[in-house]
Write a sequence for this structure.
């Protein structure tokens, strides 16, 4: 069945739901902002899936929300340009329902680049037995790093997602599986843990069009929602702690067997692992209201000895964001408008190590710095202007290819 045949009935249902929802809705959602989650309990990145503006009316059993991202870009690489481009990056829809006061369902469906890609990023039931013991099952977003959990476009001042989250780690990576999570609340801190077992990775990690170790290629296997590639689960674990006067610190791990080591009882290869460690931190400085967000990750992949050295066994990368509010006041009849300045520094090294023959450094790395100005009509809608300057080295460390790009984008919850 074609994508068009699948999309038409879905959009028809969505339109009918939307008409019902908006016909009866009486509340003004303009004051629904991302900071209105329960601040007395200090929300963490794990809370991001539910800390979104939804529309719900009366006794309707379902709440609806979503966001869009669109942008324009003009980029030049070493004096060569493909000209101006406009992009509809993504439209994401949320549907949630409280089946019972201790049973919740939420799903997140994303349409990328029109309908070039349609993905179910999250679709899970949560059962609350105790604040320290909750069960989750369905399609689960693996909590590696913070961005994978807290990736909604309207929450960021930058047009592009961090390269460490999209090209080192598989951004918005999700799998079918089950797990537990829980929280501890104290006056000065909140602590949370997550532990999931899901369908795992696959050998696209080293068999891909990039011709290098590339973890995001594991997302190209659509069967990961149906069955495990090799019968071995992927383990994802994260612990985070938010200190009231300091910020949130998170440590996460994801790992498992990625190759098909046997078929019908016949041993094909030894079991080869891919393991990822990540650390993330975010805070807001109280006097200046400066927001700081950072994340860094390391990947370790058991690459077969028959592969060339362009396939890295160790990779690393991360990003560092600073967002400084400049002006907060009523502007152009927007009651809660704000003007912000921001900057992002980011880095990825896809092949940490040296050549066996020469001892010289293996390059294959990228650096970028992105200054930005953003205007928010409210906390849930942003217009952003970025200048992206990037320099990228090949595996031999030849002079870097330099790219400059002017980007303008919009993003909003709806």
């Amino acid at each position: 069945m074609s994508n068009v045949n699948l999309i038409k009935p879905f959009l028809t249902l969505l339109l009918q739901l939307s008409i019902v929802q908006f016909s009866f809705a009486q509340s003004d959602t303009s004051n629904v902002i991302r900071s209105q989650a329960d601040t007395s309990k200090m929300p963490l990145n794990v809370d991001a899936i539910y800390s979104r503006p939804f529309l719900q009316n009366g006794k309707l059993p379902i709440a609806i929300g979503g966001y869009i991202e669109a942008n324009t870009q003009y980029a030049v690489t070493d004096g060569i340009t493909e000209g101006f481009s406009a992009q509809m990056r993504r439209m994401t829809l949320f549907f949630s329902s409280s089946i019972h006061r201790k049973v919740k369902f939420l799903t997140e469906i994303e349409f990328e680049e029109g309908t070039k890609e349609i993905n179910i990023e999250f679709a899970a039931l949560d059962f609350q037995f105790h604040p320290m013991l909750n069960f989750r099952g369905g399609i689960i977003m693996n909590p590696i790093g913070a961005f994978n959990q807290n990736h909604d476009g309207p929450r960021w001042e930058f047009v592009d997602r961090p390269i460490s989250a999209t090209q080192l780690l598989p951004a918005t990576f999700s799998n079918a599986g089950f797990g537990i999570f829980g929280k501890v609340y104290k006056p000065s801190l909140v602590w949370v843990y997550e532990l999931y077992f899901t369908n795992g990775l696959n050998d696209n990690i080293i068999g891909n069009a990039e011709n290098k170790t590339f973890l995001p290629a594991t997302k190209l296997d659509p069967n990961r929602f149906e069955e495990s590639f090799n019968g071995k689960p992927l383990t994802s674990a994260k612990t985070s702690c938010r200190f009231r006067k300091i910020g949130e610190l998170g440590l996460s791990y994801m790992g498992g067997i990625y190759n098909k080591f046997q078929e019908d009882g016949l041993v094909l290869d030894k079991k080869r692992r891919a393991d990822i460690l990540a650390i993330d931190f975010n805070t807001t400085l109280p006097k200046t209201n400066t927001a700081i967000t950072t994340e860094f990750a390391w990947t370790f992949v058991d690459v077969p000895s028959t592969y060339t050295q362009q396939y890295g066994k160790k990779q690393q990368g991360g990003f560092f964001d600073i967002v400084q509010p400049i002006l907060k006041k009523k502007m152009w009849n927007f009651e809660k408008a704000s003007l912000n300045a921001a900057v992002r520094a980011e880095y990825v090294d896809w092949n940490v190590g040296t050549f066996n023959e020469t001892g010289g450094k293996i390059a294959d790395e990228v650096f970028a710095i992105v200054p930005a100005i953003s205007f928010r009509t409210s906390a849930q809608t942003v217009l952003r202007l970025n200048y992206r300057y990037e320099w990228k080295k090949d595996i031999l460390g030849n002079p870097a290819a330099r790219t400059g790009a002017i980007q303008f984008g919009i993003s909003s919850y709806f």
User: Anything to note?
Assistant: Confidence is low (pLDDT under 50) at residues 1-40. The helical segments are 3-24, 163-168. The longest helix spans residues 3-24. Residues 135 and 262 are 32 Å apart (CA to CA).
